[in-house]
Amino acid sequence: MTAAMDLFRLDDKVVLITGAAQGIGLAAAKLCRQAGARVVLLDQNHEALQAIDFEASGEGGTWSRHVLDVTREDQVCEVFERAVVSHGRIDVLINNAGIALRDAAVDLSREAWERVMDVNVTGMFLCAREAARRMIGAGHGGAVVNTASIMGLSGGGVYPNISYQTSKGAVVNMTRALAVEWAPHAIRVNAVAPTYVDTQFVAALTRQPELMARIAAVTPLRRLATAQEVAAAMVFLASPAAAMTTGHILAVDGGFLAQ
């Protein structure tokens, strides 16, 4: 019988993480390494990637980093293939890269709309597809964990954010559809749906006390999530502990969606 804590281990699993240079992605990378994984950090921000130094932190585990723009199909194919050449396989994809442009619908340009869709929907699809192609080709199955949002499951919010809300709604149903399609290949596809998370992603909001008070008021636990709290849910969904879980959207939302 597998020891209880072993169910949450990722020993020798090769885990690719997009949007890994900061915030939730970086927190996920750290937790995956602590769980024994070999981690590949992917981000379009070269400078932020280069600033990461896991060796100095004393954490164990093999890791590498590559610059990646998830909207560039050629880059996604090249980097994912390089990961297989370097590490022999891909076991887990944490599909986390995303952007938000907080404009009201009547003020949102088509270019801004398409930019959000390119990153949050098309980019996420391209990465999931390339990971699955290699998992299916190797015949060993795997796990994909997408980053959705409470705004993909609710039309609510404390400010206009139509492009982000629409894109994350697409991520929710993409997750479910891919879970069904890839289940025969033993590939599990799930998503986390965080509330507002205390990272640089929402830095502009945290500088507005009245807005922070409004967010706390609509969150039963009365606070923002931390990046590590979201990352912990990702590691669970990637681990053997979630072996019978697929097509699920796991809210990390302080009770927001329970209302």
From TrEMBL:
One of its GO terms (molecular function) is oxidoreductase activity, acting on the CH-OH group of donors, NAD or NADP as acceptor. InterPro entries: NAD(P)-bd_dom_sf, SDR_fam. Transmembrane segments: none annotated. The keyword DNA-binding does not apply. Keywords: Oxidoreductase. The keyword ATP-binding does not apply. SUPFAM superfamilies: NAD(P)-binding Rossmann-fold domains (SSF51735). It comes from the Bacteria. Belongs to the short-chain dehydrogenases/reductases (SDR) family. This is NAD(P)-dependent dehydrogenase, short-chain alcohol dehydrogenase family. It comes from Chitinasiproducens palmae. The lineage of its organism: Bacteria, Pseudomonadati, Pseudomonadota, Betaproteobacteria, Burkholderiales.
